[in-house]
Amino acid sequence: MRTKFWFKALWVVPALCVAGLPAMAQQQSSGQQQSGDPVADAARKAREDKKNAAKPKKVFTDDDVKSAAPETPASGSATAGEQKPDETGTKQDPNGEAAWRKRFKEQRDRIAKAELELDVLQRESDKAQTQYYSDPQKAMEEQNNRKEINDKKAKIDAKKAELDALKQGLDDLETELRKAGGDPGWAR
Fold first, then answer.
1. Residue 67 has what DSSP assignment?
2. The whole model's pTM is what?
């Protein structure tokens, strides 16, 4: 009797284990999807939804498509006294507010660019002053003639002169605006 019991148990226990494997595998796979953290589950679901979402189609507007504006003839170029067409095709007054503001903006942009370049040159010069050369020959050569430092100094001086000329150009532009009878606020 005891042998029959063990013999039956020997067959029943593995059969139950084999029957329970699919249920256990399904439970583990769903356990990986649901971590118990609602924020992580929501983020995972949002990621899956984003992958499955259809991509929106590109909508072209007038800004995306270049308009084919008719070219003006080369012989009929506008002089300083004539009105010039702007981007919209309307005539622009050369002494109007928009023209003056554009000229001042361009001049200020040139000044800002020159100031940035000067700043970079000055930082490079400062770096060259404290430069360490691992090659003793190069270190001795720089110590004696300071060629690199002198070159950078010359570039800085040239950039300062250019910046002064640009600032003088801005002052001249303000004077020109005043003489043309424009509003001083246009220079701002």
1. P
2. 0.44
